[in-house]
């Protein structure tokens, strides 16, 4: 499958990021730091691309939506031009959502250890696995393969999976990937470059 060049961003820091809570498909607001990160990302992106010339995709979850709107506004793009795509909303953490890691380790000890033993395949109650995330990301990638260049604002887990698919990584390698809230990544020709 031919894939476009992707400028990949993560939403700005949220209250739950700061508190160490699993967010998944629940939401919490951006912090003031998160809003500044979105503005910084807008400036970084502007050094490489004019977002008015390409399709701009974002997760429809509030934290990604607000981040994308800040980036658009800073770069002269109307928010109505952002394509909010369900397939790139965050990994569903099921029973872990809204809870801290420490809480889950204590209250859901078995589920926590089972997931740690096989993060790629394990499905949390009410949630999904990376296998399921791969399925929806592959559907979305197939739908955008005619694009040359796009911008994406999504989430750490989704971006991790997207980078893994795009760069043809093993599941073990993919699971080690991180992306801070203020880092811009360029995916091109089957590889990635951290732009800052």
UniProtKB/TrEMBL annotation:
InterPro entries: His_Pase_superF_clade-1 (IPR013078), His_PPase_superfam (IPR029033), PG/BPGM_mutase_AS (IPR001345), PGM_Phosphatase (IPR050275). The active site is at residues 11, 90. GO terms for molecular function: phosphatase activity. It comes from the Bacteria. Substrate binds at residues 10-17, 63, 90-93, 101. This is Phosphoglycerate mutase family (Rhiz).
């Amino acid at each position: 499958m031919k894939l476009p060049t992707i400028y990949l961003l993560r939403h700005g820091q949220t209250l739950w990021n700061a508190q160490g809570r699993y967010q998944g498909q629940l939401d919490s607001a951006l912090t003031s730091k998160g809003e500044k990160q979105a503005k910084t990302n807008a400036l970084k992106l502007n050094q490489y691309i004019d977002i008015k010339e390409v399709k701009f995709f974002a997760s429809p979850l509030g934290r990604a939506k607000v981040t994308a709107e800040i980036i658009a506004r800073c770069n002269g793009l109307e928010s109505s031009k952002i394509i909010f795509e369900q397939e790139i909303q965050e990994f569903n953490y099921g029973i872990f959502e809204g809870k801290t890691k420490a809480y889950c380790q204590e209250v859901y000890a078995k589920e926590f250890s089972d997931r740690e033993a096989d993060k790629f395949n394990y499905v949390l109650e009410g949630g999904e696995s990376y296998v399921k995330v791969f399925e929806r990301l592959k559907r979305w990638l197939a739908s955008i393969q005619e694009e040359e260049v796009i911008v994406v604002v999504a989430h750490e887990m989704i971006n991790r999976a997207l980078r893994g698919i795009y760069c043809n990584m093993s599941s073990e390698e993919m699971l080690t990937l991180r992306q801070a809230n203020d880092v811009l990544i360029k995916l091109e020709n089957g590889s990635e470059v951290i732009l800052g």
